[in-house]
Amino acid sequence: MVLFAAAAGVALVFQARNASMQEARQLAFGVAQAFAHAPGTLEAMKSDSPRALMQPRAEEAREESGVDYVVAFDPNGFRWTHPDPALIGKHIFALREGAAADRPFTQTFEGSLGLSVDSTVPVYDTGGKTILGFVAAGITVDSVDEVVQGQLPQLLGFAGGALVVSAGGTALVSRRLRRQTHGLDPSEMTRMYEHHDAVLHAVREGVLIIGGDGRLLLANDEARRLLTLPPDAEERRVTDLGLEAGTARLLGSGRVATDEVHLAGDRLLAFNMRPVGPDGGPAGSVVTLRDTTELRALAGRAEVARERLRLLYDAGVRIGTTLEVTSTAQELTEVSVPRFADAATVDLLDPVLRGEEPAGPGSEMRRAAVFGVEGARTLHHVGELIRFVPTSPTAVGVERGHAVLEADLAASGDAQDPDRARRVLDHGFHSLITVPLQARGVVLGMASFWRSEAPPFEEEDLAFAEELVARAAVAIDNARRYTREHALAETLQRSLLPGSLPDHSAVEVAHRYLPALDGVGGDWFDVIPLPGARVALVVGDVVGHGLHAAATMGQLRAAVHTFSALDLSPDELLGHLDELVARIDGEESAERDDKGVTGATCLYAVYDPSSGQCSLARSGHPEPALVHPDGTVEFLRVPGSPPLGLGGGEPFETAEFTLPEGSRLVLYTDGLIEDRESGIDIGLEALRDALARPGRTPEETCRDVFGTLLPAHPGDDIALLVARTHRLDPSQVAEWNVPGDPAVVAGIRADVTRRLGAWGLDEMAFTTELVISELVTNAIRYGTEPIRLRVLHDRDSLICEVTDGSSTSPHLRRAASTDEGGRGLFLVAQFSQRWGTRYMARGKVIWTEQSLHGRAPEADGATADTLLDQWDEAWST
User: Fold this and answer.
1) Per-residue pLDDT at 632
2) Mean pLDDT over all residues of the chain?
3) Cβ neighbours of residue 176 under 8 Å, at least 6 residues apart?
4) pLDDT on residue 721
5) Of 356, 336, 338, 337, which is closest to residue 348 (Cα–Cα)?
6) Where would I find the PPM-type phosphatase domain in this sequence (predicted)?
């Protein structure tokens, strides 16, 4: 304590001196800075008599600040001020070593007043580039020491007081320790004995004390029991106590051990050993030990249970990630190997693989998945049909409806295939569990688990195998049902889509359709021949996927065919289609108590090859693209309307365009241009680039578009329809204005006959004269002017059209046997392949179509009379 107090006193003295020196440095530097930058210092240095101006001020600053000197000197080192006037004008010492003349510095050096702490500050001109002089302020070291010496009594007094207090405390503590060590009272001794006795006889953990020479000094009762020690074990070497070799080596080593397990008879003991070194005695060790036999068994079973639970969790996450039967079966095999088995196989009934409902468990299954050691793959290959005999584990498992364990395959054999049994054993498989794949009480197949390297399966493994397979069976059944629904939806949609498009003289068409990966949807397209050599092109899209979307698509396609037969304009047709979708939506919403259909889109176009006019209307559908013969691509600006069923009765608009001959009209659904990662504008530009190739056929255009824009994993259906337009040659069209006089009919009939002769259709002259005579006569009699007749020579038909200004519609009626007329319309119907009426903004057109490939009806009056007797109907307006 004395040395500590002395050291503390010296440290305090040095600390006080260092603090005084630091304070002197700060004071000197502050005075020098203040004087150098004081008002008038710079002007005094620049004046003619700096000595006279600055000496009084320097002395005043020195006395007020408490420094020993304030010296100002010029850049050459000659003093302007000094406490000793005799030194004014004298040269100062050379610039201090290590100091820079262009910035302030502080250091200790031997000056005119002795060893001093000096701070020197340069004074710059107002420009900041020229030094006019320096100001130095300092405090001598003797002054600093005087301050420290004045504090010394206090420091020494503090150190002495600390010494006295520490010495007194040490004496009190020492006395207390002596009392506790040597002055124990009886109660304390009794308590120590009780503790010692508890350790020896009551503690349920073995305690050993071993000396440094390897002798057993103390063993409590629990240690004697666990180690089966003899009664005279104390004072004997641990190597002479008959312990296991490993246990004896541990106890005699004296090293540190923590929960080190050793075998003692049929017990597993955990040893903890720590070295001790008692004062005045040899080193030794204290050992504690406890029985962990039951704990180890419980821990092992708990670890197995945890691993099984973890495996079931992983199976729930990994099995069923896809809605594909074989992929789900493969996931079951992969999740169970190697954590439960060394190999796993899954065999499924053939109807399950096709997505059908199995009629019942059968003896034939097909290998659907296999995973694990190589030997498992050679037993039966994936896709191979396996026939199980009634005594096989698989057949037994199906019959019982529970898992079957074959713990020793070598002993059980294989009644189904002895050669296969040998191969199983040759590959090292020694244990097998087969579990039926059951969902909703229906057996879908069997899962088999094989072991070759792991220990054989036990009875307790059966419950886990059944739980694992039960989870997989639900996923496989879901995949089977999805496969069935997908197949049904795809079959339905394929049946509802046109199997082949009609060969029409107005357009040359090609198409593509691709269903989405997650199920077929409601995309559709169609090409519908119309009267007058015209053709309708349709593309639509029903929102959603699955059977409902496909069925709705079929309804809309049938409706479009029906409305097209009425020869409606595109806007009228979409209006009727919108009402139909709204009605279907309302009916289904009432049945299902939900929102029903969420809408459908449609683009309807009518192309007339005689004029090149194309009329289009769209409802919520992307605009069509037109590829000009030179390869230029434009998207036709067709007025847009809300999707069908969502427009609320708003009218649709028709846009008309004149299409150049040989141009390609491209109709598509949004699945072709929409992408989740990029916007629709990017898709339209990509479509433009794919179409901008002149001289391509519609089929080549479809290949170009699908090769460029088709996504790897389409999330929506894609429908594409490309039509290259053709024009009727003007020589194939003949037109006449018809006056309102029945007398002109004969002349018009003669003109038509001459035009048929020019077309090489003389064999059709009779029937055509009859049709034209009837249509023109009735237009004159019942219609209003203007009246026009147009005859078109198409590739496959001859078309006659009579136009008048009235909106009255002719229809058949039954004529009485006494009526003189009323049978003309029947003759028209008999001599034409088709006939009908279409309405325009003002007036109507009555048209007939005669096939050029069929034989013309003979002009046989008897035949006509016979037909008229059966169908005695006549015109009525």
Assistant:
1) 93
2) 80
3) none
4) 94
5) 356
6) 504-725
Q: Which residue matches tokens 């420290």? A: 148
Distance CA 179, CA 227 (A): 41
- Determine the Cα–Cα distance for residues 139 and 117; give it in Å rounded to an integer: 5
Nearest Cα to 676, choosing from 708, 622, 704, 716? 716
Structure tokens at 734: 């003949």
Q: Is 829 in contact with 835 (CB distance < 8 Å)?
A: yes
- Phi, psi values for residue 478, rounded to 5°: -60, -45
Tokens of 511: 């198409």
Q: Convert the pLDDT of each residue in 447-489 to its tens digit.
A: 889 888 888 888 888 888 888 888 888 988 888 888 887 777 7
Q: At what angle do helices 765-782 and 824-831 cross, to 10 degrees?
A: 140
Number of Cβ within a 10 Å radius of residue 295: 12
The answer to whether the CB of 867 falls within 8 A of the CB of 830 is yes
- Residue 615 CB contacts under 8 Å (≥ 6 apart), including other chains: 569, 570, 605, 606, 654, 655, 656
| Pairwise CA distance, residues 416 & 401, whole Å | 20
- In this prediction, residues 517-524 reach a mean pLDDT of 72
Q: Give residue-wise pLDDT tens across range 294-350.
A: 666 655 566 677 787 888 888 888 888 888 888 998 898 888 888 888 889 898 988
> What is the rounded CA–CA span in Å between residue 761 and residue 797?
11
Neighbours of 230 (CB within 10 A): 12
The residue among 1 and 78 whose pLDDT is bigger is 78
Which residues pair with residue 538 across a beta bridge? 526, 604
Q: What is the pTM of this model?
A: 0.54
Contact 284, 214 (CB under 8 A): no
> For the packed helices 547-565 and 460-496, what is the interaxial angle rounded to 10 degrees?
10
618 confidence band (pLDDT: 50, 70, 90): very high
Q: Taking a C-beta distance cutoff of 8 angstroms, is the pair 290, 269 a contact?
A: yes
Show Cβ contacts of residue 690 under 8 Å, excluding neighbours closer than 6 positions.
704, 705, 707, 708, 709
Q: Is the pLDDT of residue 790 over 50?
A: yes
DSSP letter at 296 equals H
More confident residue, 605 or 112: 605
pLDDT at 149: 63
Higher-pLDDT residue of 426, 602: 602
Tokens (6 digits) for 267: 């017990």
For residue range 803-839, list pLDDT tens digits in order.
998 887 777 565 555 555 556 777 777 778 888 888 8
CB atoms within 10 A of CB 490: 15
Query: Cβ atoms within 10 A of the Cβ of 707, count?
Result: 9
Q: Which residues touch 231 (CB under 8 Å, ≥6 apart)?
A: none
From residue 219, alpha-carbon distances to 183, 193, 234, 239, 842 in Å are 29, 16, 7, 15, 122
Contacts 24+ apart (CB under 8 A), 589-596: none
Q: Is it true that the peptide bond before 390 is cis, omega within 30 degrees of 0?
A: no
Provide φ and ψ at 82, rounded to 5°: -170, 145
Give SS3 for 716: coil
